[in-house]
Design brief:
Chain lengths: 459, 312
């Protein structure tokens, strides 16, 4: 009996020791993981999330030779399409995650995140860095990325929207495009030149506020419609999706795509339209000005064949959007110093020059629209003759503070509404609009569903 | 007195008291159990708490505002949310269609595979392949190489036959997703039904043959009743998995009318752009309740299957 009891006490003791050892192992693992992280930091690797557009693919491939070789800082890229990038960055920045040292965002996010203190104010670093040359940034772009005089992201490229068209195709059909067209003129021309092998116009139809949502909202603005009316304090008042102007803008947009638009419109956005235009499957394309650099690039099959006109209008004087893909540092980023070194290089005038000689697209395809000095480069002036001046004046003309005919809620913006709820509302509503474009849903159904979403979001 | 009582208790503990010895045997498992509870049940409790608040992502308010306790407001909103109802309806249609179709096709394949023929092993392996593919890869293959109206095989064939091209995913989002799900889940159903067919005793069928029954009669009167439990099992396991379908929807349509099912809607409300964690938690909890109901049925079918096996 006695022995047995001793045995059980001993087994308890062994068990206790076992538990302590197990606990120690767990603690040791965490300590090891933590110290592993700190050794990683001394090796200087930063993680950067960027959007999957051609200019960003270029910088990702040039980084090892032009940046890492000089600074010793390795850059780990996460390249995602627009919609996914937004989810990832919004989630990570909002939760104070440490996944990224720098993230690519735009003027929709930068001021909002900045005001909420989720990303770092870059102004002191930018002004202190002589080589960065803060005053060289195009003021409209810098302002779009700032709030209360603080710049929260450094622009990698900037753009407005305009109309690109094949001069040869229009000439063959005996039509000319005015420099400042109306949407009615564009629609008439698109329907006239539309053939079964070459569509009249490529317009974005892929769901997403930054995809279909961006193109469509510029049309909506110039039609006199809006997503929400604004209270006098700038807060959203009532959803306006059920208003006649909204319906006529949607009907115009969907009707034009159905009659004379690209194939598979409901899945097409910037990259898909670019591919179709370069392959000669569409004759006109309304999209970001940055596309022009790719159409006139050294390796482009349609180089020299294109004309450029300002964003078409209806009721307003200018309708082009203002956008820039810019790099920001999340408040919780592990290595701010290295992140700034990277941003200062990636968005510098020196990188823009390097891109001109190191990329396949050549001078025409360099990241445009961020620095005044870009437009003084002789090589760029020669390569971008067809569109550089139009791009710069389109960016200056973008009606960012007053995009439509009524007051907008939130922070300034053309192709988006500067309130946090717009991301979700824009994404979900454009799914319905995309279905209208595909012909699988009635416009009235889509609008009434969207009105509900827009009302629900601001409650 | 007390010391004696304690001694008795101790003795009782040592001499094979079922409770004590059972616990001593289980004790080494306790850390694992606690770990499981900590990583599965605590988050669930936290979700229940979140579902009673208006918790939002920090990016969703320009000026950080404190999270408020809102009681059952989220559940009330869910009840009146037409999009949640649409999502439930889509989930039901998607699951029922995908499960039934994959079950029927799977059964046909299983019957064909049940007989000996040349290259049977190879054919069986090929038929199982779709189930081994990652769902995202399967969805991408279907989206880009089959359904696409620009480079899709289906539209090439349609064009060759003189038909107009069809924008499968835009025009028929639900149909397209169900097609991919059926393609992926047919092998699973086939394997389950095949196991059922191979467990059928051959003497009964021989006897039926001797009695002059037709092969269709044998199938309807003998094979099908024997397969009933296997079909039920396939349907229930399939439902549990297909109700959660997410990959195919995200890759092919990214949500939208006709393709946003309940899991995708919860995703849209939370980390997919809505960032309303409070409301999304309420939605998720309702989904968990539904899932538990289905799983209970599945477990009952499974256990009855094993009981039959023991009896046999």
């Amino acid at each position: 009996m006695q022995k047995q009891r001793v045995g059980s006490v001993r087994s308890h003791r062994i068990l206790a020791i076992g538990l302590i050892v197990a606990g120690a192992v767990v603690v040791a693992t965490f300590v090891a993981a933590a110290s592993g992280q700190s050794t990683k930091n001394t090796k200087k690797t930063i993680s950067v999330a960027i959007v999957a557009n051609p200019q960003m693919q270029d910088i990702a491939s040039l980084t090892p030779s032009l940046f890492t070789a000089k600074t010793g800082i390795k850059v780990k890229y996460t390249i995602l399409d627009e919609g996914k990038l937004r989810q990832v960055t919004t989630r990570d920045v909002g939760a104070g995650g440490k996944a990224f040292d720098a993230v690519m965002i735009g003027p929709y996010e930068a001021p909002q995140f900045g005001v909420a203190k989720l990303i770092k104010n870059l102004t002191p670093m930018a002004k202190a860095d002589k080589a960065y040359n803060y005053n060289d940034l195009i003021p409209a772009v810098r302002n779009a990325l700032s709030a209360n005089g603080k710049m929260y992201a450094s622009p990698f490229y900037g753009e407005s929207s305009f109309l690109m068209y094949r001069k040869d195709i229009l000439a063959k059909n005996n039509v000319t495009m005015p420099l400042h067209p109306t949407w009615q003129q564009v629609a008439t021309i698109a329907r006239k030149i539309n053939t079964s092998s070459m569509a009249g116009i490529c317009l974005r139809g892929k769901p997403g506020w930054g995809d279909l949502g961006a193109s469509f909202t510029t049309v909506l603005n110039t039609w006199g419609g809006t997503w929400w009316s604004a209270k006098s304090n700038g807060k959203p008042d009532k959803a306006q999706v059920d208003q006649p102007a909204f319906k006529s803008a949607l009907d115009f947009y969907a009707g034009l795509v159905q009659d004379a638009g690209e194939k598979d419109a409901a899945n097409s956005s910037f990259n898909e339209c670019l591919a179709q235009y370069q392959a000669g499957k569409v004759a006109m394309w309304y999209d970001a000005t940055v596309a022009a650099g790719l159409l006139e690039a050294a390796d482009s099959p349609v180089k020299g064949k294109n004309g450029y006109a300002f964003a078409p209008v209806n009721k307003t004087k200018a309708s082009g959007w203002l956008w820039t893909w810019a790099l920001a540092i999340p408040r919780s980023a592990p290595d701010t110093a290295s992140a700034w070194k990277y941003i200062a290089w990636a968005t510098s005038a020196q990188y823009i020059k390097a891109a001109g000689t190191h990329t396949k697209g050549g001078w025409a395809a360099i990241p445009p629209g961020t620095r005044l000095s870009t437009y003084r480069l002789p090589q760029y002036k020669a390569a971008a003759k067809a569109f550089a001046a139009t791009t710069l004046s389109a960016m200056k003309a973008a009606p960012i503070t007053n995009p439509g005919t009524t007051k907008r809620p939130g922070l300034p913006g053309v192709q988006y509404v500067g309130i946090p709820q717009f991301q979700d509302v824009g994404n979900r509503c454009t799914q319905f609009f995309s279905a209208v474009i595909a012909g699988s849903m009635k416009d009235t159904t889509a609008l009434s569903q969207c009105q509900q979403i827009a009302s629900q979001a601001i409650r | 007195m007390t010391a004696a009582a304690a001694d008795v208790a101790l003795k009782k503990g040592q001499v094979g008291d079922p409770f004590s010895s059972a616990w001593r045997r289980r004790l080494p498992l306790l850390p694992a159990l606690l770990y499981m509870v900590a990583i599965t049940q605590l988050p669930f409790l936290v979700s229940i708490y979140y579902s009673l608040t208006n918790l939002k992502d920090r990016t969703q308010t320009l000026i950080p505002e404190p999270t408020k306790f809102v009681g059952i407001d989220n559940y009330r909103e869910l009840y009146s949310d037409p999009f949640f109802r649409q999502a439930i309806w889509t989930s039901v249609k998607m699951t029922v269609l995908a499960v039934l179709l994959s079950l029927v096709i799977g059964t046909l394949f299983a019957i064909l595979l049940d007989r000996k023929f040349l290259g049977q092993g190879l054919i069986r392996t090929l038929l199982i392949t779709p189930f081994l593919l990652m769902p995202v890869v399967a969805a991408l293959i279907w989206k880009q190489q089959m359904f696409s109206s620009l480079f899709g095989v289906l539209n090439k064939v349609l064009g060759f036959l003189g038909f107009n091209s069809v924008q499968f995913i835009s025009d028929h989002p639900l149909g397209s997703i169900v097609t991919v799900l059926v393609w992926q889940w047919t092998p699973f159903m086939m394997l389950i039904v095949l196991a059922g067919l191979q467990s059928q005793p051959s003497d009964i069928i021989e006897a039926a043959n001797v009695d002059g029954a037709t092969s269709f009669g044998i199938f309807r009167q003998l094979t099908l009743p024997h397969l009933r439990r296997y079909l039920e099992l396939g349907a229930l396991l399939g439902s549990i998995y297909i109700v959660q379908a997410f990959d195919a929807i995200d890759v092919m349509t990214g949500g939208g009318p006709g393709s946003t099912n309940v899991p995708y809607y919860v995703y849209q409300q939370s980390i997919g752009g809505g960032f309303r964690y409070g409301a999304a938690s309420a939605y998720a909890i309702v989904v968990v309740i539904f899932a538990i109901v289905i799983a209970t049925f599945a477990l009952r079918v499974l256990s009855s299957l094993f009981k039959d096996e023991e009896r046999a």
